[in-house]
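pasting for ref
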Amino acid sequence: MKKAIIVLFVFLCLGTTLYAQSVGFGGYFFGDYENFVISEQGKNYYDSENMNRRMQGGGGYLFADMAVLMASVGFEYGDYHYKKESRFIADVFALDLGLYIKTASIVYPMFGINYSIPLFGGYKDYYSDDYIDYSADEMKYQFQYFWVKAGLGLKIPLGGMSIRMEGLYGIRFRTNSEKDRLEWDNYIDNIFGHGFSLRLGIGFGK
């Protein structure tokens, strides 16, 4: 089922690009937060404030806009820290694919999905402080993200081009590592991933 959704997602992105009324590029800043919900029994062993993680970073993207459907592809870099300690955990460089339903108005609501494919990254060993590269399987296991996002955009026409400002908030599906953690760790009731992105771009065309 998940593979079928990804294939459909890619075909829709390609279709949007082929029939786009405008294309452009931009940059963005994002924040991704992983929150742990501890069970009553687990509160004797865990402190969620010491477990919650945040990932912040940025990237660049290209987009194609078909008035009511917009596709984007970009690359992003971010690093993970524990929310409370601000201690570095890992960093990730990823390919980001997005597809959004929108309106053709100056101020437009957006709703869509994002698929983030990790390409490379690494982590700092807790004891030795050495930086260690992730394997491809480890990257996919921990950092392959599928998001549902919604937000608002503003299009400022400037002749044959436009400036676009967009703000999005999203909830992501659990990664395979998070699913496995919930399977074996009875002290955790839930793992909740959510985040935001702020985008600024320049479009050419209608």
